[in-house]
Amino acid sequence: MSFSISEFNAQINKRGLAQNNLFYVVVTLPNALLGLEEMIGSRELSFLCRSVDIPGMDVGTTPIKNQGFGIGEKRPVDFQFENLQTVFMVDGDFATLKFFHRWMQEVVNYDNSAGQLSEVKGRVPFEFGYRDDYAATVEVFLYSTHVGNKLYAYKFGKAWPVTVGSIQAAWENNAEVMTLPVSFTFSELKVDGAESGIVSEDNSRGNGLLTYISAINAWVQAIGQIRRPQNIQDLIHQVSNIRTITNAL
Question: What are 150-185's pLDDT values in tens digits?
């Protein structure tokens, strides 16, 4: 099939091409961290996000040789999320710095300026907090202006800053904006392109396990009730019950 410039242009014009400068980042804090919004609001923080590197998905594999020799075929054995990398511009009041430095302190109390026995919210220096208290939700929205202002959303759940990066200050950089790199780790990911899981009442895995446990329990109870039969009919009845329960296992 020969390459057609006109067909190529037609296909590109049909859907357009996404631009990497059309994005919006929203940080939703848990109730335990709502006090941080007194430093800088979530909406203001969104406008200060200068760039974001949306993480990829990494499937770990191991080579398998079905015949014991020859070329190995890779099989999935692990799955990892990469960190969410962001860069925030620092405002003139340094509220951005205060926000992330305080958030990091919720993760680990790194302040030991008052001694090793000093406490911040009941935690001594270098004591870690509980993840449920500092984990947030970070959403990244990608926009397209070509067809109906489409957007594509990423939702990173149980996210928290694993790295609040360094800042480079130099006299010759008088025309540059101060920026703060922040790296987030997260445990949950929802994207528009993926199907959402559902928990049904007739879940085969869950109900199968419960049914098996119930059958084991009934079998144990039946064994415990075995007694010396009084007659032939009683013997047949006990054997029939045990056989029925055993077949259900």
Answer: 889 999 999 999 999 999 999 988 889 999 999 999
Q: Using CA atoms, how far apart are residues 91 and 45, in angstroms rounded to an integer? A: 10
Long-range pairs for 239-248 at CB < 8 Å and ≥24 separation? 245/215, 245/218, 245/219, 246/219, 248/211, 248/215, 248/218
Task: For the chain, give the number of residues.
Answer: 249
Which pLDDT score is estimated for 195? 85
Q: Which residues, in sequence order, are bridge partners of residue 61? A: 76
pLDDT category of residue 101 using cuts at 50, 70 and 90: very high
**Concatenated DSSP letters for 152-169?**
EEEEEEEEEEEEE-----
Task: Extract the tokens encoding 70.
Answer: 């020859």
Domain ranges of the chain: 14-62+75-191, 204-248
Question: What is the pTM for the complete model shown?
Answer: 0.74
CATH of segment(s) 14-62+75-191: 2.30.110.20
